[in-house]
Amino acid sequence: MPTLLEALEEKYGYAHTSDIEAEAELLVSIFVPKRPPRISVPTVLVLNDCGIDQAGSADDLKKKCCTVKELDLAQNKLENWNEVFNILSHMPRIEFVNLSLNRLERPIISPPVNRIDNLRSLVLNNTKLNWFSVEELLKLLPSLEELHLSLNEYTHVLLDTLDEDNHRSRNNSSNNDDDHQYEHSTSMMSSSDDDDASVGSEGSSCCNGYRKTNAHEGVRKLHLNGNPIRDWNEICRLGRVFPKLEALVLADCPLRSVSPSPSINDDINSMKNDEDDDYHLSYEHFQNLQLLNLSNADINSWTDIDRLSKFPALKNLRVQNWKLWSKCDSTEHERRQFVIARLPHIEILNGGGRIGFEEREDAERAFIRFYMEKPEQERPSRYAELIAKHGKIDPLVKIDLRPEKKVQVKFIFEDRIENRFVDVYKSVTDLKHRLGKLFGIAPCKMRLYYVDQTYENQMGPEEMKYPNKQLYSYNIATGDKILIEQKK
């Protein structure tokens, strides 16, 4: 398998400086006012899926890659963190690194002495990296602002700033082995750094204990998509480890609630005071969070929407494909209105443009009208707030635009006139069969002409030639005429 340098030369065609100089002796020299492209390595280096498993010559790396700012090494064969550190140590300007789809689950045993001061964005999706290695990386990256840890099979977050887990979930509704292991592990939080080599992949599918760590004040964006985390307690740990977090992406995580202590009485809890502990614990570690993506969560209660309204800085929210929406007896537009009405500070919902003044006002008024017809005990606390804002609103007038079911029509056949009521939801064929019995004419020998009493002089009769057409489509009204003609 190639080294990074070999992959670099294979993809970009870089040759050694000595080869270029030897070739130059045979050619006429032409002055070009910039560095030769065969020597200059781009600042954005993309070497994904090249089979790279090691760094290569340290001296050559230092010469060729000293100006690199962005490095994409996704889907290679890197397994040893020492090789990764060898690469990064020779890129002093590096700001972005993508190591996704490299098998980096081995623990970081000998981290470098010098920190990587300029790295701001690190992508480690689908690397199966354990949490204790994440901690080592955070120590080495003081300037880190954006961290991607998606698809790493995390069920728990094994880092915390607390000495003990004071926010353990009290939900006992699930009795599987994973939950039992979680309850056992919360009492085993360890602040020691022992047994680094034995942690294996405990950050991915099991949890043997938590480690106390220091908060990282730099991380602003965290992506944790597609990890099977179910308990908001685990997310609260992230809020403590990253107190300045502004964007948290948790799409495709099967979270059951936005409460650290989910309860079967969620609907009752929604009526409690705003200062209730259940609400407070949901957001207390996310004071700076502006963007939250919870799409495809297993959340099934409007109470969790109410909890999200308490996040003090939250402006941008994604809550698509919740279980809650499938059980709502309402249109997508109505659901959007109810969510907007419950979240007074949200400016962007499920992507798209900003929520304007008119959309918000319409949503809040629709919310009031919906709940004003409900019993008082079913009204959420937001209802009272909106009544205080808008006052009591008159219900919308219900207008039925459907045509009258039966109208009286004058039927004329030769010299005979009959006034009869007809069902406008019947078809022309149905009408012919009825008239056939009344006038003694076979339906197949009958032609019908509709005469609108309002436009009789201007338009004249209209043949009713389509047998399956329903009568209301002719806009038939009481007082209109239908002429009957017998075919010869």
TrEMBL record:
<dbReference type="InterPro" id="IPR032675">
    <property type="entry name" value="LRR_dom_sf"/>
</dbReference>
<dbReference type="InterPro" id="IPR001611">
    <property type="entry name" value="Leu-rich_rpt"/>
</dbReference>
<dbReference type="InterPro" id="IPR029071">
    <property type="entry name" value="Ubiquitin-like_domsf"/>
</dbReference>
<keyword id="KW-0677">Repeat</keyword>
<feature type="region of interest" description="Disordered">
    <location>
        <begin position="166"/>
        <end position="205"/>
    </location>
</feature>
<protein>
    <recommendedName>
        <fullName>Tubulin-specific chaperone cofactor E-like protein</fullName>
    </recommendedName>
</protein>
<keyword id="KW-0433">Leucine-rich repeat</keyword>
